[in-house]
């Protein structure tokens, strides 16, 4: 169970005999924070396919400590994905509420999100929105748990949109509606709804290309946040790449 402390931070609490929850001990809470920080770093660098042992090593705790807090890797992945999805949703809401101009609101959201690095940790079902399925070569490893800039490239159609085509054994078919069960996972439905409002406003104002979708905007966030060893270089590369991508989104 999670509780919110006086600083607004979400803390994990443990159930006790009377049905109530008691806060974690100081050392247990510290270990949890180390594990979560390490998981964000490792998954951001290597994708959600990274093993739990890498997370434990980065957190400087035993792998048993990680599994005591998160009984399976799926539980840890969901926790991280939910936190990053909620962060992006809040950033989108802030842009909607504080920017009157539609394009300013959309570009502010993109710049804030890319700078935070949250795009590298978006849940896979959000990044797959708008693509029905990708057929990989027989025996290929599952790529769904990796963020876009770590995946093999997929052929793009005219205007940069993903369309029908085949390349290196991959086939991409046309867009579809995303099932509600997928959208609700990790808070994705709320994120898609808020970003959709940003996209609709910019499109209706004639400032966004008519073929740009919510999926395209989320892919910009994911791909414009490269993981580089030098922080200054990463910030500069992200800003430069985002400038180029923003120009590609604007209507002519």
UniProtKB/TrEMBL annotation:
Region (Disordered): 142-164
Cross-referenced InterPro entries: Homeodomain-like_sf, HTH-type_TetR-like_transc_reg, HTH_TetR, Tet_transcr_reg_TetR-rel_C_sf, TetR_SbtR-like_C
Superkingdom of origin: Bacteria
UniProt cross-references to Gene3D superfamilies, sorted A to Z: Tetracycline Repressor, domain 2
Domain HTH tetR-type: 29-88
Swiss-Prot/TrEMBL keywords: DNA-binding, Transcription, Transcription regulation
Annotated DNA-binding residue span(s): 51-70
PANTHER family: HTH-TYPE TRANSCRIPTIONAL REGULATOR BETI, HTH-TYPE TRANSCRIPTIONAL REGULATOR RUTR
Protein name: Helix-turn-helix domain-containing protein
Species, as recorded: Streptomyces roseicoloratus
């Amino acid at each position: 169970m999670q509780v919110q402390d006086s600083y607004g931070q979400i803390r994990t609490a443990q159930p006790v005999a009377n049905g109530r929850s008691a806060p974690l001990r100081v050392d247990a809470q510290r270990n949890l924070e180390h594990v979560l920080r390490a998981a964000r770093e490792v998954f951001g660098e290597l994708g959600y396919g990274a093993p739990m042992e890498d997370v434990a090593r980065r957190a400087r705790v035993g792998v048993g400590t990680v599994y005591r807090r998160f009984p399976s890797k799926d539980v840890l992945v969901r926790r991280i994905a939910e936190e990053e999805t909620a962060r992006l949703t809040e950033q989108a809401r802030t842009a909607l509420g504080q920017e009157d101009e539609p394009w300013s609101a959309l570009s502010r959201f993109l710049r804030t999100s890319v700078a935070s690095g949250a795009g590298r940790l978006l849940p896979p079902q959000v990044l797959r929105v708008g693509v029905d399925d990708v057929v990989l070569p027989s025996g290929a490893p599952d790529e769904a748990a990796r963020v876009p800039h770590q995946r093999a490239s997929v052929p793009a159609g005219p205007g940069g949109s993903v369309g029908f085509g085949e390349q290196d054994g991959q086939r991409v078919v046309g867009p579809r509606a995303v099932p509600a069960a997928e959208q609700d996972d990790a808070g994705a439905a709320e994120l898609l709804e808020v970003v959709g409002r940003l996209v609709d406003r910019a499109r209706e104002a004639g400032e966004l290309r008519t073929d740009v979708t919510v999926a395209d905007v989320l892919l910009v966030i994911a791909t414009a946040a490269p993981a580089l060893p030098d922080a200054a270089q990463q910030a500069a590369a992200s800003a430069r790449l985002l400038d180029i991508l923003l120009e590609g989104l604007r209507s002519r």
